[in-house]
Design brief:
Organism: Oryctolagus cuniculus (Rabbit)
Strand order of the largest sheet: 1-2
Order of helices and strands: EEHEEEEH
GO molecular function: ubiquitin protein ligase activity; zinc ion binding
Radius of gyration: 24 Å
Structural class: alpha+beta
Number of strands: 6
Catalytic activity: [E2 ubiquitin-conjugating enzyme]-S-ubiquitinyl-L-cysteine + [acceptor protein]-L-lysine = [E2 ubiquitin-conjugating enzyme]-L-cysteine + [acceptor protein]-N(6)-ubiquitinyl-L-lysine
Main location: cytoplasm
InterPro entries: E3_UB_ligase_RBR, Parkin-like_IBR, Rcat_RBR_parkin, TRIAD_supradom
Strand content: 15-25%
Number of helices: 2
Length: about 90
Amino acid sequence: TAEGSGGGTEQAYRVDERAAELARWEEASKDTIQKTTKPCPRCHVPVEKNGGCMHMKCPQSQCRLEWCWHCGCEWNRTCMGDHWFDV
């Protein structure tokens, strides 16, 4: 709404605090997902590594690709020998 005194115009805005908080959480979630996951090389679903070796298995039932977290290739003997436990 515009209210004036002396010819000036002021705008009054209401901030929906709940919507603003949800938007902040959504952005924080996106940042965390980007920092802690890598996409499956085949289906691109985000996969989180929370410990263990570099041998990953896609959690999507229709994919289940076994792949290397380190190099992103399908899991193979080179991965097993060269960087099984890289950090």
